[in-house]
Amino acid sequence: MKALITGITGFAGSHLAEHLLAHQMEVSGTVRKTSSIKHIAHLLPAVRLYECELTNEANVEKMIADVKPDMIFHLAAQSFVPKSWESPLETIYNNIAGQIHLLEAVRKAGINCKLLLACSSEEYGQVETQDIPIKETTPLRPLNPYAVSKITQNYLGYQYFRSYGMHIVCMRTFNHTGPRRGEQFVTSNFARQIVEIERGLKPPILYVGNLEAKRDFTDVRDVVRAYRLAIEKCEPGEVYNIASGSSRAIGEMLQTLVSLSSSTISIQEDPARLRPADVPELIGDYSKFHHRTGWRPEIPFEQTMQDLLSYWRAEFS
Ligand SMILES: C[C@H]1O[C@H](OP(=O)(O)OP(=O)(O)OC[C@H]2O[C@@H](n3cnc4c(=O)[nH]c(N)nc43)[C@H](O)[C@@H]2O)[C@@H](O)[C@@H](O)C1=O
Q1: What is the pLDDT of residue 158?
Q2: With a 6 A CB cut-off, is 284 part of the ligand 1 pocket?
Q3: Fewer CB near the last or first residue (10 Å), C or N of the chain?
Q4: Does 269 sit in the ligand 1 pocket, CB within 6 Å?
Q5: What is the DSSP string of the chain?
Q6: pTM of the predicted model as reported, rounded to 2 decimal places
């Protein structure tokens, strides 16, 4: 089976490539001119890379015609919420144009290809207490442009399924983390700061934003296993939550990380890290996906935090 991963050089993309190779799939992926291939260098030449800008229609059509994938995992996106406030149009444009080009290229090529769309728990946005744990039927009340872009990707997937009968499944993935997580995201940002403090590279002050928000974290390695099962077993046209089913405050997550270090660290709020609006609490109900595939998360949160710190310690060794 030929799998194509958009965003293969990124965090989830690189873990997914490893997972699919371990399941005897042929793996290809799209890279941008500006992408670093650091996270997948160890997988070359087993994975095939295609230079392709998803916002360039001709690029995408040519890539799909060349690869003729049996399945596509569409992960590439502008995924950092704060950037979506700074550049709302760029976020919406990148995320929507890229996906439309992909859907159109597959449709026009007339190939039998399953698609998985990586959407997001951010689509739920302002969740009311009675909505927790969040089911796929919970109303969508987006709080940032990124969330709007993901709702649009989600509904485009539904529309192409209905209009053309394409096999498209949509995952509303809650926060996920682990080794290689981009340093702008909270878990990696804090882990990196801790390691910099351990190495004496910065004073022992760790800068934070809103520590009150609660997030439902899953290990990236559990998430990519879910993605493979989803494309194999899920019903097209449907949307599925991928979550752990519990949440913790960002402050608790920080305490876990700090407890795994022997350094003495003081915490300081950096007002620049606060957002115009922050989703207060996300807890996902993943029972729909569990009933379909048998999946449940396996890696304990403390292990994920330990592995994330080990990743940053290795980066600074
Ligand atoms: C599911 C969803 O998951 C991710 O979106 P996110 O939840 O915005 O992720 P994050 O790691 O940037 O923030 C998590 C929380 O942590 C708070 N927070 C406190 N202090 C800092 C801080 O210093 N940095 C950051 N980044 N956040 C901080 C921040 O205010 C927020 O409440 C993306 O993968 C997105 O693509 C996606 O789809």
Answers
A1: 98
A2: no
A3: C
A4: no
A5: -EEEEETTTSHHHHHHHHHHHHTT-EEEEEE-TT---TTTGGGTTTEEEEE--TT-HHHHHHHHHHH--SEEEE--S---HHHHHHSHHHHHHHHHHHHHHHHHHHHHHT---EEEEEEEGGGTBS--GGGPSBPTTSPPB--SHHHHHHHHHHHHHHHHHHHH---EEEEEE--EE-TT--TTSHHHHHHHHHHHHHTTSS-SEEEES-SS-EE--EEHHHHHHHHHHHHHHPPTT-EEEE--S--EEHHHHHHHHHHT--S--EEEE-GGG--SS---B--B--HHHHHHH-----S-HHHHHHHHHHHHHHHT-
A6: 0.98
Mutate to test the pocket of ligand 1, among 11, 144, 190, 215 (most ligand atoms within 8 A of CB): 215
pLDDT value at residue 282: 94
Domains in the chain (CATH in brackets) are 2-176+217-242 (3.40.50.720), 180-215+246-281+300-315 (3.90.25.10)
Atom of ligand 1 nearest to the CA of 80: 36
Q: Name the average pLDDT for the chain.
A: 97
**Distance from the alpha carbon of residue 67 to the mean position of ligand 1, in angstroms:** 34
Q: Is the CB of 218 within 6 Å of ligand 1?
A: no
What value of ipTM does the predicted structure carry? 0.99
Reported as a pLDDT band with limits 50, 70 and 90, residue 118 is very high
Residue 66 pLDDT grade (very low, low, confident, very high; cuts 50, 70, 90)? very high
Cβ–ligand 1 contact at 241 (below 6 Å): no
